[in-house]
Amino acid sequence: MRIGENATSSQLCQSFSSVLCVSLLLSGCGQPQGHKVVDITQDQQRNRAKSTEHQGLKPTEDMPVFVAWYVPGNRPGKKQALELAIWEDGFVLKHSLFSDHLVSTGGIDPQEVAKMLDALGEPGFYKISTGQCGIPPDTSYMVVAARRGSESNYVRFWLDEMKSVSKGRSTRGDSMACFKVWEQVEQIIHETTIEDVSPVDGSRTGSIRGYNLDNLNDTRWKDHKLWILP
Fold it and tell me: Residue 200 region, left (φ>0) first, then alpha (ψ -120 to 50), else beta?
């Protein structure tokens, strides 16, 4: 459009905007969206770096492929305690019969470990939502985490509710789905045949494969972020 003395203010503004836009594009400055893409990519890289740092343990060497520990809620005198941890090579840490705060070592056939992880997947452990087995505040629950290949999950099971389902006192849909998985979890915890069981000396300190003998809360593989993969 030719700009003359009779041009309206609207036409002048449109012409000026067109000229300015072309000028910005030619100068390389008129690319705000490009900068935004770069920023998003940088954020993703930072998040990925944090995720990689957080998942610094090697799952096949340092982290168990199955672990369960008890959280007592507000029960006085009770503390978190490991129930069972199983590694891919068959190494086992289990709750000791001698004390709530001691563990024993042992072993199982690695082929049995693979079968156990497959059996855990049959009722849907790797697909169940972490929040589906949600628990009220200050109640006792069992944390169960497991990894099979690229599949993994971390689920909290409300123990009182699982007992209610087993006795027919609760028929909530989400509880029933959780209970099917819980039955398989209980079978693993209580019926897995462990060989060469040996109590860990109560005076021993430090860690065993990342399990902190002095404080379960300092055991790194307790963190749910290591199990719920992005």
Answer: beta
